[in-house]
Amino acid sequence: MGFPIQRMRRLRSSETLRRMVRETTLRSSDFIYPLFVIYGQDKKIPVNSMPGVFQFSVDRLPEEIKEIDSLKIPAVLLFGLPEHKDSVGSSAYQDNGVVQEATRLIKKICPEMLVITDVCLCEYTDHGHCGLIDQKGVVDNDATMGLLAQEALSHARAGCDIIAPSDMMDGRIGYIRKELDDNGYKDIPIMAYAAKYASSFYGPFRDAADSAPQFGDRKSYQMDGANIREALREVALDIEEGADIVMVKPALPYLDVIKAVKEKFAYPTAAYNVSGEYAMIKAAAACGWLDEERVMMEALTSIKRAGADLIITYFAKDAARVLQKL
Ligand code: PBG
Q1: Which residues does the Swiss-Prot or TrEMBL record annotate as the active site (predicted)?
Q2: 194: which residues sit within 8 A by CB, 6+ positions away?
């Protein structure tokens, strides 16, 4: 009798066979590409800590949108860099705000592309926190609700397809859902940043979106990285309040959370492969220490294997290009 009977290597012997028994495959339709929209004209400003990522003024978006569309990436996630910041983030909920204008433009030039808008105040407040600050210097949960709802509503009026609240205030999904429903937008889905951790992997994003908190940190509203049971409670609450898609963020250091969320709730699950995860790979590749393309595809495949149905990633264009070659 031969030894061993089961030889796992039999099915690994050629690329064709490996391709046939592969359990997880990426498609460009898995991806959502984040875009930073900046106030002003004729701007395409590189983000230093995120090679290949730019801040675009609205008039410079068409070329970028055409490229994203040609790569068959179905959706973008918009972040705004406004002209003015103040303590209540007024630029977030103006109908002529940067995100609102970008939404109108994208829906005009590429109607089939889905526009998802990030709903948060941190890019619009002078203190850089995701909500209003009370007398004691604490982020005021309930006072923030109304502003987030106004922001979501103005995105809906501009024609966005999906609302994505990223602030982590308690009760905001239900509050925003009601505001949308009461104003005739009952069919706009909410993608909730449900389990969003207070992560140091957001560093480069805060350059890109100019949204670093000016004092303190976000630990009183974003989650402690050590917790997974709490993540399941967060997701349960957002679903109860009306979330259609639930998100785990970041992705790679939290693959166990993605898996647990998918298994427990079986809801459409998004994972945000955040700025720091992107920057680490870009930096190591620039040093010649890693093969960028292979590491990127391996990382994205692992996020999907963990259970993500949707992957928000700055690699979307690069990965879609690789997939086109296959
Ligand atoms: C806004 C927001 C952040 C990210 C997405 N939405 C920053 C933060 O919470 O500090 C991070 C995305 C990334 O790092 O790529 N609240």
Answers
A1: 196, 249
A2: 231, 234, 235, 238, 239, 243, 246, 247, 248, 261
Among 55, 196, 202, residue to substitute to test ligand 1 (most atoms within 8 Å of Cβ): 202
- Domain total of the chain: 1
Q: Is residue 106 part of a domain?
A: yes
Decide if 182 is inside a domain: yes
| 166 C-beta closer than 6 A to ligand 1 | yes
**Which of 145, 51, 40 lies closest to 82 in space, CA to CA?**
40
State the complex-level ipTM: 0.96
4 is a domain residue:
no
Domain that holds residue 152: 26-325
Q: Is the minimum distance from the CB of 120 to ligand 1 under 6 angstroms?
A: yes
Cα Rg of the chain (Å, integer): 20
Is residue 44 among the annotated active site residues? no
Distance from the alpha carbon of residue 202 to the mean position of ligand 1, in angstroms: 6
| 108 Cα–ligand 1 center, Å | 27
Q: Look up residue 177 and give its two tokens.
A: 């859902």
Ligand 1 binding pocket includes 35 (Cβ within 6 Å): no
Nearest to 248 by CA among 190, 182, 312, 175: 312
Does the active-site annotation cover 43?
no
- Taking the model in full, what pTM does it have? 0.97
Tens place of pLDDT per residue across the chain (326 aa): 679 999 999 999 999 999 999 999 999 999 999 999 999 999 999 999 999 999 999 999 999 999 999 999 999 999 999 999 999 999 999 999 999 999 999 999 999 999 999 999 999 999 999 999 999 999 999 999 999 999 999 999 999 999 999 999 999 999 999 999 999 999 999 999 999 999 999 999 988 999 999 999 999 999 999 999 999 999 999 999 999 999 999 999 999 999 999 999 999 999 999 999 999 999 999 999 999 999 999 999 999 999 999 999 999 999 999 999 98
DSSP-derived 3-state class of residue 120: coil
* CATH code where residue 214 lies: 3.20.20.70
Q: Is the CB of 303 under 6 A from ligand 1?
A: no
